[in-house]
Amino acid sequence: MHISLQRVASLSSHSLLKNLRRLFEAFVLDADNLIPKIAPQAVKSAEIVQGDGGVGTTKKIHLGEGSEYNYVKHQIDGLDKDNFVYNYSIIEGDAIGDKVETISYEINLVASADGGSIIKSRSNYHCKGEVEIKEEHVKAGKERAAGLFNIIELYLLGNPDAYN
Description:
Layout: E1 6-15, H1 20-29, H2 31-38, E2 43-50, E3 58-63, E4 71-80, E5 85-93, E6 100-111, E7 117-127, H3 135-158
Antiparallel strand pairs: 1-7, 2-3, 3-4, 4-5, 5-6, 6-7
């Protein structure tokens, strides 16, 4: 019998940026181009393996020298440009190892009460068999995601004409 355990982790980061569309475009829609330019230590390159960039597309992300991993493949599961929601799953790569089947993510950008924005991220670890995901692994993933978000935010603050 195959039992798939699931571990859920959430992350919420605040941004000074008020324009959700601009942030979503940089962080989600153009991430394959932007991140290798501004954070090559995190991502060397990204390529579409299958699809047109929309839902169902599979991408191979070649990770940078700052990563302990070489690559991941992720599949776009949902994309709502009007409500700033992005769903994707890591379906392959040395980052998920042999104990995790997939990791599914939901990214949601919302306006904050102080006029900035909040990025909410939820991850679901779908494990192979009865495997426990260690808290330090989840924490490291959250820290990488928050760091990447901060790099993109700093880029947008320093380049006010980008993605307008």
